[in-house]
Design a protein that fits this description.
Blueprint: E1 5-14, E2 23-30, E3 33-38, E4 45-50, E5 55-58, E6 60-62, H1 70-73, H2 78-81, E7 85-90, H3 124-133, E8 139-145, H4 146-154, H5 164-179, E9 184-188, H6 199-205, H7 207-212, E10 215-219, H8 227-241, E11 245-247, H9 261-272, E12 277-281, E13 287-290, E14 302-307, H10 318-325, H11 329-336, E15 339-343, H12 348-356, E16 360-362, H13 376-391, H14 397-403, H15 406-412, E17 428-431, E18 452-457, E19 460-464, E20 467-468
Parallel strand pairs: 1-4, 1-5, 6-7, 7-8, 8-9, 9-10, 10-11, 11-12, 12-16
Antiparallel strand pairs: 1-2, 2-3, 5-17, 13-15, 14-15, 17-18, 18-19, 19-20
Helix pairs in contact: 4-5, 6-8, 8-9, 10-11
This protein binds zinc ion and copper (II) ion.
Residues 64, 66, 92-93, 219, 248, 365 line the site of copper (II) ion.
Length: 480
């Protein structure tokens, strides 16, 4: 049937991603864009989504992902689409698929990316054109990883500051990537490939961010005892370059630091008075990263998500493995490297306080490797909507949606995304406010959420009645 619209989403309550109260409206879509927000009772359309009794929101933007390779390996992107996510930001924590060296092996934490040996995007433009040629189901925003620049310029000789010549090369590479559409630079200063980089190295490499209006996104040097020093370093980089900074997955780890978010958030608030600062957070009190063999972690509960040398240990508790082997947990961890693991290092009250901080964006930090990944990969967005907004009452549903749409789009400069308004790209998520919930747990982490009814990406219905349609309408999003 020919209609006035390609698609009409009818009968829902619209939460438009601006943090204002919901209102009753239909949405008309034409050629991948929102053409009408209003009463479309009499309109005809090629396809109609009945949203009666449900919430109609902008598609969610996952502000922090390691989906660089998952987009090719699993282009349907069900872990994200099933949560209502329509756009992912890749290249976080200093590790991006592009621009990447062809040399192997790559040091941890590059294993978080699951980058195959035979695939290297030596130029950022190659990464985006590969995505355009083999489109995934979601849109992609790309950050350039500082550690990726480092291995490209310095090989495996990473345990030192970069030389002036290396910095010049990294700066030129970053400038080229920004020209090709990257939104900014990410760092993971806690990780071995970047830990030896002084603040000045970041500033000197980051110069082109000022020219291009790029953003600096950081997994800070410290998220425990020295978290304030790390915040100061982050703010200093932002001020030196006169750019916006984003603090990744803000947290304070280990019992001796529990409660300190009551002080870090006011410090962030204070900085916001003088410079642009953003932050993101995932809604869980456990973290996940490469397997670490630090004796200080012997008292922490650890689940091995995936071990390269010991795949038979995937999904098991580190304490059990260590007891079986008759060694301390850190020694067992050393034997299990390289791999990924889940660490119960946070306090629930800090997680809630950080998540409820008005400017905190939602980002999954999902890691797509291993038999038993952290449940944030499949559960983050419905957990914020269902558990934290509806059940715990941390904030209204409108605020929850804003933290995963409009706020994120504004932070990353995605001008056509994140709000439901005429002219915007038709990225839409329809969900049931009463039933939406995460079902992925630490025990069964790869379960799809409940209550996400439909997902539309660039006008293409990608999830209908909770089932993936096979649509792959995602596009790379270049910096505006
Ligand atoms: Zn990180
Ligand atoms: Cu990360």
């Amino acid at each position: 049937m020919v209609g006035e619209y390609d698609l009409v989403v009818r009968g829902g309550m619209v939460i438009d991603g601006t943090n204002r109260p919901r209102f009753r409206a239909d949405i008309g879509v034409q050629a991948g864009r929102i053409a009408t927000v209003g009463d479309l009772g009499g309109a005809t359309a090629r396809e109609i989504l009945d949203a009666g009794g449900r919430i109609v929101a902008p598609g969610f933007i996952d502000s922090h992902t390691h989906d660089d390779q998952a987009l090719f390996v699993n282009p349907g992107m069900m872990p994200k689409v099933s949560q209502g996510v329509t756009t992912v930001v890749t290249g976080n924590c200093g590790i991006s698929s592009a621009p990447m060296t062809t040399a192997r092996p790559l040091p941890p934490p590059f294993n978080l990316l699951d980058l195959p040996d035979d695939r290297s995007f030596t130029a950022f433009a190659d990464y985006f054109s590969a995505l355009a040629d083999a489109p995934p189901a979601v849109n992609v925003v790309g950050l350039v990883g500082h550690a990726s620049l480092r291995v490209r310029a310095m090989g495996l000789d990473l345990d030192r500051a970069a030389t002036d010549a290396e910095i010049a090369e990294m700066r030129a590479t970053l400038r080229q990537c920004l020209a090709e559409g990257a939104v900014g630079l990410s760092s993971g200063l806690v990780y071995p490939p970047a830990a030896a980089a002084p603040t000045a190295e970041l500033i000197e490499i980051g110069r082109p961010l000022s020219e291009f209006g790029g953003i600096y996104v950081t997994h800070m040097r410290n998220e425990e005892d020295f978290v304030f020093d790390a915040l100061d370093e982050t703010f200093a980089i932002g001020r030196a370059l006169e750019i916006a900074v984003v603090i990744s997955h803000h947290k304070v780890m280990y019992p001796r630091n529990f409660g300190r978010s009551a002080a870090t958030l006011p410090r962030i608030r204070e900085a916001m008075a003088n410079q642009r600062v953003g932050l993101d957070c995932y809604p869980y009190h456990a973290s996940s990263t490469m397997i670490r063999s630090d004796p200080a972690l012997d008292d922490v509960r650890v689940i091995i998500a995936e071990s390269g040398p010991h795949p038979e240990c995937d999904g098991r508790e580190l304490a059990e493995i260590a007891a079986e082997w008759g060694v301390k947990p850190h020694e067992a961890a050393r034997r299990l490297q390289p791999g990924t693991a889940v660490y119960f290092t946070m306090d629930e009250n800090d997680v809630r306080r950080i998540l409820a901080f008005p400017e905190t964006m939602v980002g999954s930090d999902g890691i797509c490797v291993g038999k038993r990944p952290h449940p944030r990969l499949w559960g983050t967005f419905p957990r914020v909507l269902g558990h934290y907004s509806r059940d715990v009452g941390l904030f209204p549903l409108e605020t929850a949606v804003w933290k995963m749409t409009g706020l994120t789009a504004a932070t990353f400069g995605l001008k056509d995304r994140g709000t439901l308004r005429v002219g915007a790209a038709a990225d839409i998520t329809v969900f049931d406010a009463a039933t939406v919930r995460d079902t992925a747990s630490f025990e069964t982490p790869t379960e799809a959420a409940e209550g996400i009814a439909a997902v539309v990406v660039n006008g293409a219905v990608t999830l209908r009645d909770g089932v993936h349609t096979g649509a792959r309408a995602g596009v790379p999003l270049r910096r505006a």
